[in-house]
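Notes from the 1:1 (GR / supervisor)

We went over the backlog. Supervisor wanted to see one worked example end to end before approving the batch request, so GR pasted a single chain during the call. The sequence is below; no edits were made to it. Supervisor asked that the structure be written out right there so they could see what the output format looks like.
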Amino acid sequence: MASAMSERYHHRQRWAARGALAAAALAALLPLVSGGLKGLLLLAAGIAGLALTAAALWWVLSRRGPVRVAAATLAAASPVGVITLFATAGLLWVIFASLLLWCLAVWSGRYALRSTGLRPVRVKEYRTPPPQRPFLLLNPRSGGGKVEKFSLKEKAEALGAHVVLLDPDRHQDVTELARAAVADGADLLGVAGGDGTQALVAAVAAEHGLPFLVISAGTRNHFAMDLGLDRDDPSTCLDALTDGVELRVDLGFADDRPFVNNASFGVYGAVVQSPGYREDKVGAALERLPELLTRQSGPRLTASADGTTVTDPQAILVSNNPYRMDDPFGFGRRERLNSGKLGVLALRVDSAVEAAELLLSPRPEGLTVLTAQHVVVQGDEANLEVGLDGEALTLPAPVHCRIARRALRVRVPRDRPGVPEAQPRLDWRRLRKLAAAVGRTAAPSRTWRT
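Structure output shown during the call:
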């Protein structure tokens, strides 16, 4: 019976791979079959339209005044023009049919690759007793007032936590507050605030070997998202005080400054320094980007990552564990937080042509993606502007980034949404092998990793 079930399993796998290949082929051939030479020309026009849109967006970001306005108009008009061409030729339906076929190919291909026996990475959970003297710092301004909206102070105190509400009108050193709490006997440190505040308190918790509680009351909550916490209702994070488990995760450092998400150098590191960035992020970026992208201002950077050197990128992002790059629905997420590796993304774009390549090429020359345990970022200036978990800093060059593997004990609720399973990368060569197979095709099982 087990053998019959296994055979049916592999039968579905083979046909899913065949379906993916067939749908992808139809998606590519449909414009040619439906329109002949006209369809071929329209397909070329569509590709040219995408390239023109990417080039126009580059001009929007790297120019000012009338040129920026004209480029923005071109970026909007280019896709409209392509759609109009297909509609005039009576082939608009071909675009939608090809998109549907491509979606079917992606879904079917991923189904086939998911069923190859490779298991997702699972973070090991540790059962530990609830804290007796938890200490929480709450930022009332974080996330537009989520602390008050969800009554976090009252709920935390009802669960036995000692709560300090940060004063929004004066600067308070959260690191010193956390250390004072440890000296007073706290056995858990927690924060409701942005990722920058989270990182500072997390470093104190890691230094003293204490569990750390993340309350997802920030604006974006990237760290909370990758921990699988509920970002819609931060009060659910408090369940960890009574019914929680611990995860061992990594902590990143830029020199001696901790980060839970990333350290950004170059373009973003400079933009985040702008006085009006917090109130108007888009306006601040558009004001600074032309000089930064065309290298009229800002340092000339070099990054060395475990023996690999990246020269003169406009932007470098060093992350606490690598971000997923092969899934548009999971872009910006990290599949795991305990790999002991820094992720490195370096971007260099010096022209509209290179901007178009960045959009159209599967492996653009201007984008470098690496993993490393140690990254050194240097510049031709004495100090480098850094965006550390979104906070503006200036650090002396060179900046040494490292990762402390599983240095942080994060206490999370036992019952939480969890991190969505990473979709497998579409490997067309592997799909062809699966489609052609006549016997069992499952890859050897991979054991759970922690």
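Supervisor's comment: Residues 441-450 have pLDDT under 50 and may be disordered.
Batch request approved.
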